[in-house]
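Protocol step 4 of 5: obtain the predicted structure for the target chain.
Materials: sequence only (see below). No template structures provided, no constraints applied. The aim of this step is simply to have a reference model before the mutagenesis design in step 5. Sequence pasted as it appears in the construct record:
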Amino acid sequence: SPGSRDILEAALQRARVEYVSDDNSAALATAERAIAAQTANPVELAAARGVYLSLRSLRARALSAVGRQDEAAVEYQSLLPELTAAFSGNDHQIAIDLWEYSMVEQRRGELHHAIELALRAYAAEQASGASQRGVASVSMGLALDYLFARNGPATAEWATKARDVHARMYGTQNRDASVRFEALDIFATGLVRDPAAAAAQLQPLVDQQRAAGSLFLGRLLWFQGESYLHAARFSDAVRCLQESEQLLVSHPDQSYQLPLV
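Step 4 output (structure tokens):
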């Protein structure tokens, strides 16, 4: 029947596949159809409560991914207490939702709240012991939170943690992911030590990402441009930051970085 557990679980799996495939509008539509079906069938609600909450969580993530940050924040604000109660004892699941909510708040510029949520996510991931990948992601998110908040020492501390955890898991494998950890660590260390050296170290990464046509190039050029700025190499800083701005403007989901650039 509509709203039954089996149908909801199938919808959740489909929405997850769409979400990880970056088909975010489709994931949002799938989740919203399934949520509406269950809302209309209260008899099934209690039996499928966990699936229903997971669909709402995925809906919030999809809202964020399509740029509807304020709506995502409102959904998470109401959803988080229910998720915490429903998944009590499942620290890894709670950590995922805390982390996702933190990323929404980061994009909205609500940095104090983003940091609070991310620290809770980090503690939950540590308690669960389930996912070093989760620890690496949350550490990177905290480094970015502190970067946006202009706290150089905390940025460097969390960037190094993130890179170290990721390196222990993957070594030199998965270059697309490792370059993000490496670049942030180089940049953050340069902010508190030698920004000119950091800019030079970032250049091979810029060349690699440019050749690959990577969307990460916009952020990487921001890192390099700001490193040049701190090193008082202003013409180089302008060159990098102008290109970064152009790249970020062309991708609305990355536009939250524009104020700093």
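Step 4 remarks: The two ends are 51 Å apart (CA to CA). The chain is about 80% helix and 0% strand.
Proceed to step 5.
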